[in-house]
């Protein structure tokens, strides 16, 4: 409709003199209002900012009658139950909050009890005296027509006076009876309370209530017995006004009234805080507000940690969910991990991983997913990954492979759950080599599992050529595998193994997903070299913990995550340890892993070992291969050299269990890592990079000479 309006343009042919005062035609105005209500704009001939529609609209009619309506989703409905009644955690939070307030009031008034007792002792007799006076006045009906009688007396009108007094006497006749019975009843009550006729727990509260009532009646109006306690404003209620004030502080919106609140989404309590669903004016989207969280918090006069603006998934981009916590979230106590003390999990079913800022449980899924945890040192990666691994450990079917390339011992508790060849902890080359062998083993598993699973499909155990629990239980060769590598960048950037390891990981995350292989990698270095796109882009479940800037956010979570509102760069390392933004399972989620300290993880692993009958099966690994000898072995007798790509393909063919993921680049990097040069090799007239037989032979001879 705005295309019908041109600022400052004069109405075509109106002939209105701007200098003259405008006379408004009320009938026309009314008509225009009705038209506006019907969704139309009536051009007001006297409106200097409106021009005739046909002067501007030269093309086709934009909204022909009966144009299709856009589906903006199901009509918003008010929740049947208040949100604090819909989850146990929220109910606890609400009860705790009420309990806290009740305890505070009880404490305040208990301390003041002696003062209150003194006030009651002072005012109760005064109340009794006042009450007696009031009852007497009522009984004698002196108040009723006193002024009329006085008036008759002043006028010496004895007849009227006597008539009025007779009326008064008639009233007093029955009132004396009531007063008499009332006084006798009160007296008897007093005697009963003063003696032992009733137990103390009846007498004390009744006497107390009576005294309190008298004291209340006897006190001056401005002297309350209970001290007025101004309860500290511990909780700041989020109102529409406050929400608008906060959003205005971002500088994105010009007029507060442009911020509206979604129907059915009024501001309400949600977990330990308040939730407002606001619709932003045209041209402003929720991501813009999320981006200016700091200004928003400033406008609300609250610490950042208490203000959680979010984009609403599956809603229009201008709808903002603003959740304001009662207290800074980092100071809130997270609920305990539900599986901490008992319970088991199922690899194929989600389990609780952590809690979002509203303290709602957030689930984690192992099947058909791979995981990445990226964050700066101290952001809580290892702890978060340990929760995922603890979840996996509580399914007795899961086979573990764990490599900690930092060697800090964060994952030592999982050692008893791993076959000896599948556990390593250390920053040395040997551990990296073993981690690489583990990847080769996973590749081999990918090769063997596919045909086996297909066979079970023909027996009716699955429908989609994917591993499921029934198959995993039936065949010990198809147990789900959870393979974790901490500080994976150490392996990926290794000059010798890096390229081949990255290629292997890419292959594993692509193929292993449906075969019950979950690769979980963690890294603190977030750049293109440490997180090659081939690996990350195939990992579905990615969690980014505290990082310095949007570059790392997009590298870890995928390009565009920052634009969609992911802001892990707002987390403060140390304070917000464990907080991360996750993609790949449900909508973009801000979540903090449940806190499991070392002792808790050790207990969980001990439980997990018991679930596995106290021991884990050994795993056969292929011996580490001699790469140079293998390359020499695939050179044909008449070849003096060969290209890397041909050699890589031949190696994958000859030793698929070890080299199936081998690429030309990876092979070149591995061989160069062993001290050989990559050279131009001419084969069948084509010159490409490769290696000569003579180089390989010399290197092998030198190595043999060194070891002698
Ligand atoms: N979910 C959590 N809840 C509470 N505190 C946490 C949480 N996660 C981590 N922390 C705290 O942060 C500290 C660092 O965690 P962690 O060792 O997992 O970080 P990291 O990112 O792995 O660091 P590094 O890269 O140096 O290994 C922990 O010792 C713990 O005190």
From TrEMBL:
The keyword ATP-binding appears for this protein: yes
Q: Which residues bind ATP?
A: 375-382
List, alphabetically, the Gene3D superfamilies matched.
Answer: P-loop containing nucleotide triphosphate hydrolases
| Domain FtsK: start-end pairs | 359-554
Q: Check the record and name the Pfam families matching this protein.
A: FtsK_SpoIIIE
The organism named in the record is Catenuloplanes nepalensis
Q: Origin, by domain of life?
A: Bacteria
Q: What name appears for this protein in its UniProt entry? A: S-DNA-T family DNA segregation ATPase FtsK/SpoIIIE
Kindly list the residue ranges recorded as spanning the membrane: 176-194
Keywords annotated in UniProt: ATP-binding, Membrane, Nucleotide-binding, Transmembrane, Transmembrane helix
InterPro entries named in the record: FtsK/SpoIIIE/SftA (IPR050206), FtsK_dom (IPR002543), P-loop_NTPase (IPR027417)
